[in-house]
User: Fold this.
Amino acid sequence: MSRLKRFLKMAFLLDILQGLGVTLRLYFSRKVTVQYPEQVQEPAPRFRGILRLHRDEGGEPLCIACKACQRACGTNCFDIEGKKEEGAKVMRPVKFDWKLDRCSFCGFCVEVCPTAAIRFSREFRLTGTGKVGLFFRLPDMYLAGEDLQEHLCAGCRRPQ
Amino acid sequence: MTPFVAEVLIPVGKVVAVILYPMVMVVVMIWLERRVVALMQGRLGPNRVGFQGLLQPVADAVKLFFKENIMQRQADTFLFNVSPVLVMFSSLLAFCFVPLGEPIMLGSYNLTLWIAESPVGLLIILGLSSISVFGVIFGGWASNSKYPLMGALRSVVQVLSYEIPIGLTVLTVVFVARSMDLVEIVRRQEASGVWYGFLMPVSFVVFWISGIAETNRAPFDLPEAESELVAGYHTEYSGMKFAFFYMAEYAHMVLVSSLVVILFFGGWLPPFPSVKALSFLHAAPGFVWYLVKIMFFLYLYVWIRATFPRYRFDSLIRLVWKWFVPLSLLNFLAVALGRFLL
Amino acid sequence: MAFKEIDLNMGPQHPSTHGVLRLKLAVDNEVVLRVEPVVGYLHRGMEKLWENLTYTQVVPLTDRLDYIASLSNNLGYVLAVEKLAGIEVPRRARYIRVVLAELQRLASHLAWLGFMANDIGAMSVLLYGFEARETILDVFEEYCGARLTIHGIRIGGVPHDLDGALVARIRKVLDGIPARLADIRALLDENRIWKGRTVGVGTITASAAIEYGLTGPPLRASGVRWDLRKDLPYSSYDEFDFEVPLGRNGDVYDRYLIRLEEICQSIRIVRQALDGLPEGETSVKVPRVLKVAPSEVFHTIEAPKGVLGFYIKSNGTDKPERVKMKSPSFINLQSLEHMCKGNLFSDVVGILGSLDIVLGEIDK
Assistant:
């Protein structure tokens, strides 16, 4: 009996029709395409976008140039120099060079920072037209806010 | 109607129409294929170029037009250039014999919706569509490279083998309709009241599957399988020559769909002619029904492509020689017996 | 009939070689005689690079080995370091690691399914598989911020905790996967074209498989019951109840079925882990600069592709002296010639797909 059934299934192309039925059903299903750039899929809160230096509420930079991030980084992205001004309580960075093309977005610098000065933003649109845009100096590290408002194009709009 | 119009303008117009008709269908098919396959896969497909992506074929054509025509130094120039032409030529020429509907009366002039009607029209079409094999083998050989050659050889064997079930199943239709004239076949279906696809479903299924194999479409598209032979016999072609192969494949698909519709599904006849309640269906002219049916079969082509994996070459050949040929022979015998007894 | 052998080259640039793999084939009229894989196009000098980095700094770089299943590389390396340094990880962290590793196995098998079906021609399955994989990658993004090079396991534990919202999200993802899988199975399992391409193709017997050092699903498809999660359990795998699917014939179809079954079993394991998540810490305190006494260790785990092993030799400093990685894909690739002999040229693609190789792992 089962041999007959198998023969009938084969003769009447039942497996073929079953496959066609699946694609037909999925033809009418909801499509998952996110039409970029009109629609943008917002990344998760912990998303590892580009690095940014942050300031505190008073506008003072949080970074104390302790170079923990430089030591933690496995790919030598950072080049930091700090100086303590006369009468200031903490050191401040005078040079904070960061290379985007070396960053592997591992997050060690963020994890070791004692003041949470350097953090990931959620900016993932990191394209540019020139390699010079991949090199970030101190003022560039503060640019833009936390979220996706500003497109930090590495190479087009930052003052050179 | 002046003689000039009747004897020069209208025939020239028909020739132009016969060249444009498959080209327009090709354009529609390019869009349809990409959109439908995408929608079946859960994504949107082209929807940027023009409304709902309808100008995408235009974008493709412009891109292919401006691409560089690369040719290898060791390639056989003449054959390399002639093969896309051959493939295109065979696909387009067959459309001269494909009737689109009953003749229309324009005043006193009887406008026939075909260029030529021949008592052996079916045979001519089958013969013409076989010429495309030459184009394939020339293209594969002239490319002077192993992958295209293998692809071309496979394609030739495939097309030649599948001609046999096509011929046998077409013979069953000819047997029942007692004519090889395509117009006559449709008129016989109208007269007998039942379309041959329902009278001889086995013929239809075997013809349809063999037609898919003839046009090198999935699941029989091993000669041009992307993931195995890079692109088979048209690997080395770029630019307009590749566009010719591409368009010729779609034109051949339209041709096979037309044949299916005419031979098995009543051509330009509306369905359910005897049901009084559905008589409004007769309001649409014949060629509208013809187009609707062709679109259904073209959609079926795309649907099948999106669904199934590819047949391996030896399974393909085994399928035709071990299953389709005996099946179509038996089918032919059954039809002949039935014709004889009934 | 003259015997004519053609040399075919499936070059580094090919739609189906899963990366930059070059296969030198000798073909006689479509029947494959010899297959010689040429690897090294993606070699980046990882093992040498790691000798200049601290143990912690190596972890994100292990992501780039098997980039389809990066968490399993992380896990393999981190477990080896913890064994070397004698670090004991809290139970909650072990359970979270199991959740992450099994989710990663799901994602890897779904990607494999898509790629293999696409190579054989069923192109819609690629998109269905990836749609399901995207839901899992979204979970990873929510957990630790990255989708592909995940770096979600640290020496000593895991970086973040699984809070209630994330657990609910994972459960939702797990509920959605069986439906997708059912669609794909309806398309492929009984399909005569699929079966014609995969049944009886690329067979390898159990004894040959063991001789070639095959591991992972291809080994289990040949009937050898060897799964490190059961036989040499790590990270609390012995506390979960799951089955190890076994095949009979060792052909491509069996490997396909086994990976599908492994997907179901992985869903089962994750559900058990989420249900029984113990309280506790998510990591132990590990010194910022981890110095390890001179010693050596070789630790293996069951990655989605097979048995992944790390051999680490320490010399008392904070950087390893030598790290050697035993990648499953590299060993599995050896058996390609044995499996392809006698089969047709079109089958090479299917067999390669069923082996599930990743060039990042092979070339390091």
